[in-house]
Amino acid sequence: MVKNRHEDLGLSNEKVIEIYKTMLMARRIDERMWLLNRSGKIPFVISCQGQEAAQVGAAFALDNTKDYVLPYYRDVGVVLTFGMTAKDLMLSGFAKAEDPNSAGRQMPGHFGQRSNRIVTGSSPVTTQVPHAVGIALAGKMNQEDLVAFVTFGEGSSNQGDFHEGANFAGVHKLPVIFMCENNKYAISVPIEKQLACENVSDRAIGYGMPGVTVDGNDPLAVYQAVKEAADRGRRGEGPTLVETISYRLTPHSSDDDDRSYRAPSEVAEAKTQDPIITFGAYLKETGVMDDALEKELNDQVMAIVNEATDYAESAPYADAESALQYVYAEK
Amino acid sequence: MVKNRHEDLGLSNEKVIEIYKTMLMARRIDERMWLLNRSGKIPFVISCQGQEAAQVGAAFALDNTKDYVLPYYRDVGVVLTFGMTAKDLMLSGFAKAEDPNSAGRQMPGHFGQRSNRIVTGSSPVTTQVPHAVGIALAGKMNQEDLVAFVTFGEGSSNQGDFHEGANFAGVHKLPVIFMCENNKYAISVPIEKQLACENVSDRAIGYGMPGVTVDGNDPLAVYQAVKEAADRGRRGEGPTLVETISYRLTPHSSDDDDRSYRAPSEVAEAKTQDPIITFGAYLKETGVMDDALEKELNDQVMAIVNEATDYAESAPYADAESALQYVYAEK
Amino acid sequence: MPVISYIDAVTMAIREEMERDSQVFVLGEDVGKKGGVFKATHGLYDQFGEHRVIDTPLAESAIAGVGVGAAMYGMRPIAEMQFADFIMPAINQIISEAAKVRYRSNNDWSCPMVIRAPYGGGVHGALYHSQSVEAIFANQPGLKIVMPSTPYDVKGLLKAAIRDDDPVLFFEHKRAYRLIKGEVPADDYVLPIGKADVKRQGEDITVITYGLCVHFALQAAEKLASDGISAHVLDLRTVYPLDKEAIVEAASKTGKVLLITEDTKEGSIIGEVAAIIAENCLFDLDAPIMRLAGPDIPAMPYAPTMEKYFMVNPDKVEKAMRELAEY
Amino acid sequence: MPVISYIDAVTMAIREEMERDSQVFVLGEDVGKKGGVFKATHGLYDQFGEHRVIDTPLAESAIAGVGVGAAMYGMRPIAEMQFADFIMPAINQIISEAAKVRYRSNNDWSCPMVIRAPYGGGVHGALYHSQSVEAIFANQPGLKIVMPSTPYDVKGLLKAAIRDDDPVLFFEHKRAYRLIKGEVPADDYVLPIGKADVKRQGEDITVITYGLCVHFALQAAEKLASDGISAHVLDLRTVYPLDKEAIVEAASKTGKVLLITEDTKEGSIIGEVAAIIAENCLFDLDAPIMRLAGPDIPAMPYAPTMEKYFMVNPDKVEKAMRELAEY
Ligand SMILES: Cc1ncc(C[n+]2csc(CCOP(=O)(O)OP(=O)(O)O)c2C)c(N)n1
Ligand SMILES: Cc1ncc(C[n+]2csc(CCOP(=O)(O)OP(=O)(O)O)c2C)c(N)n1
Ligand SMILES: [Mg+2]
Ligand SMILES: [Mg+2]
């Protein structure tokens, strides 16, 4: 039997099952989105597949009653952990009025839900990084015990906003966790054409913060790294840069054909490390989950996804004229 | 007697005297600018004082017949080494038509002279960094043996353009030398409010390039670091980040009063390390310069500065309507 | 009523708002210990401490972006761009983020922040310390752009901007800072953002402008008055979104319109003012719409000859007004 | 003459110029191996190699800034912004640098570069993949902004842009990419930047527009023709600096002017077009200048209901043209 690593991290069996179930939920929602896209029901999908362990492992290390998350477009696992539901996500996929992210104004993957402190995001990459710093600054000014958690891809770590935001947080010792979800590609551009450094985490020292690289297919490794970063932040010791290494299992988005720039064999190889499979195996090997429970969880998740899909599909769009609302505050 | 360090670097006695004289020229021009400003003759001056060793030491390590320099506003020492004259600089100070930098269109300190491969610069800091990368890229494409040398302050190293430019150069292994002239202040903001890292050179690893920090008051140390960086670049091994540590001996510019943010004693203390004095002392201690030569050099420099001042003062301004020229290429 | 300078009105407005609301804070380059390169935040560091008057690293995108984050949290940041010319690196944060936070989240989030910046020429600032940058932003719904002309307006509008629930760009004319003085009440008042202001009633010609040029127009109007020409002067105050009603009213009143900006001409905000007039009250016009602006060159040069050639000044304004009156 | 799509005209122009001049190269995100997210650079990587078709790191300010550097050296970079919406981080490099290199150096240096970007909506692109961004730049002397409507114009103008000695922003309508096809000569030709083009001669009303809306106007003009209304259609092609002569001529010809843009209305470039008309040929007008544009909201939403509401389309254009004709 494999070593039980989650107990050492203070994670109960129930917790790790929750983590697994959330990862599975993210995966199943995403898979459904692709089906809906390929059958012409929704115009666009951008995937979390392959990054669920990193996302859910990280989000579980935060306090979803007070921390702020600034997810990037792949972070289905993060927002699920912070309270967004499958229904919310499906409403967003279908661009319906009830979508809490934007009432169908934004593409799917542009998360935002104030009640859950999921901070509204945009398409231009990396702009959320300074926002996280601003939220941490505001929290500090108001003596609130909060951590701001922000994610981005390895390609996006090359934007000026990463540099400027990280440096600001470093100088002001703010409780920010910068998590780079390194999935080895930025659309078609492979990591060696994006970065000259070994690891994105090598950049941390330039901002006076610790940087760690962890296995993004292992939710427990990510949990641990983010937990330490959150603890540091809460202790007033400043920000941390965490890099998770995984692989993007789908094309970049539903508009992309990845066969033009990477070999199917490379993808197939990466799929052997699929975190849903490997973490499932861990849970079985540690005796936390058996086949029956696995099936039960899967059935529960599928039922929720099915219901969410049906609901969202038949929900109404926002009225055309509602496009005129909320440019400015309305009295 | 002090150890002769310049011979080990392959620098003859004549060369180090040339270095000293260029440093002195930069200093005397700058001092004159302040006098002209304080007497109401020119509206603005921004100084090189305290950074002459870094500038001249670095520029002498380059090949001024083929390399490109992208100086920032303090780099009088760099542009002098690359062929700009005291007269050119005075014409710029007085904003006269004959100013080769801009015909009086730009403030002093905005260098540019195509014939000497001094690349035109602007006021927004750090924009020149990607330009240097583009020039190195172009040189590489054209199989030219050139190095692009670009400078900026430590505050300016926090701009996104530093990060984006450095990363681009790292990925493409381009012959760029990024030199940060760390003078401990960005206008009033001290280094500890600018940077959370120990050294600006700590950032190099994040771009897969070597980073070194050297004494900016010692032209020989800077010469050595930049020479190595240039050699690396020419060998196709990519960029280098060099940080020079010195101190800004004047207020930020003629518009600044530095007494509002730093103690006169701190400035006085730094003046004991004034590179004009310390390098002069080295030259004497190594027997390269005696009092007579020192006086002679000073007299030569002063004569040139005086002549340049007189010439520039009485030179004409550009015609008012010439402001309409050169928005676009003219046929 | 005390007479104070334009810049002192800036400081006064910030101070009063910081005293009133603990969520208001200042961030920017050199705004703290030094009190700003123009001294607009002078004394605030001593009064409110380094945590509410933050000397930031030299990085405008972070200044804006950190401000956006703090504003989304619920604070009311006042970010200073040291010169309007240096707002360029922050444009992504301003246009993609600040302007769109409320809209994209369907009113779930908002971004109540002010970005202040000194703009304008005539101070030997050369290409990069003289520009008018408002036209770059004056096409972005979600933003408001305020450009006051008098100390009274500065105080009332800056306080309104700080209390506004949406992002406001507040551009201050740097030559007006010490040149323009005026009566400013010591007590609390706000002026409405989005409303133009008639600075002078007149019957023969209408001048519509903003910022420092308002003063040039008023000076010229005095001269014209002694020749029996009566000029109506409308100060836009908010240049985006424009006060269409006031523009149409002012244009219709005299039927002869001169639009003035210090910016380069093509694409400046007075083009939009002309369009509003041409769309809404074309048949009230007795003369072509006239525009006085800087020449279409990248920015004003440093040398005094060329700088003077570029700048709008009272003589150029007077000449244009006379020409229009005689049409 | 072969009939090809708008996007194929882009590729053809780039390919021909790269074959003609070894100093021309392409850089941008995914432009190499993948051939661009829209396939505008398809095949160039194979033909010219990774050193002339460079997949850059994901950093627009560097893409523009490295391009500026290479252009100052003497090369002719063609930088792609993956979507016009993502040009924002590069604005400092474009406005402070590219636009001002020649001017600030008194003609000593220059910056012959092209920045291409797909813009425009109607493709379910939502807020950040649909914007028209030209107005942000259409007030910056030193820049030229080209926005072609047909494959023929695309090829001739893109080649002209690449050979131009100054920076050119070249905005391609992404919905036109595959929707619009037309005859394009296989041989070398260039079209003049800065010149508008009469796309249809007419007598009763004048429509002035650019980009995809040119096609809407032409379609509507056909319909109106069958009702005896003759529409003159001017395609601006270069939106900055504007072709003032052609605008005045087109407006004067019929005295009734409809200006159309897909951009949000206030501050869009058609405001400047209106100003030029109101300044130069006001008394030739028989109707107020009419404008048809997107509503003043930050950008077009994703949901089909709201996207459709935002977009200009042939019906809206036809309705406006009829209204004007009946005035
Ligand atoms: C500023 C900006 N430029 C370009 C894009 C288009 N784009 C969207 S995602 C992407 C690649 C992102 O790669 P990475 O950061 O590695 O994240 P990943 O998608 O791999 O998770 C690009 C180029 C964008 N959204 N924003
Ligand atoms: C983008 C931009 N922001 C602000 C300024 C105003 N400014 C000019 S120099 C300076 C400080 C620069 O500090 P540093 O980089 O350390 O260089 P130093 O002046 O100390 O040599 C500032 C804030 C500017 N020129 N450009
Ligand atoms: Mg990636
Ligand atoms: Mg410094």
Automatic annotation (TrEMBL), chains C, D:
Cited InterPro entries: THDP-binding, Transketo_C/PFOR_II, Transketolase-like_Pyr-bd, Transketolase_C
Pfam families: Transket_pyr (PF02779), Transketolase_C (PF02780)
Identification of the protein by name: Alpha-ketoacid dehydrogenase subunit beta
Gene Ontology MF terms: oxidoreductase activity
Domain of life: Bacteria
NCBIfam families reported for this sequence: PRK09212.1
Keyword Oxidoreductase: yes
Residue intervals of the Transketolase-like pyrimidine-binding domain: 4-179
Entry keyword set: Oxidoreductase, Thiamine pyrophosphate
Needed co-factor(s): thiamine diphosphate
SUPFAM superfamilies xrefs: Thiamin diphosphate-binding fold (THDP-binding), TK C-terminal domain-like
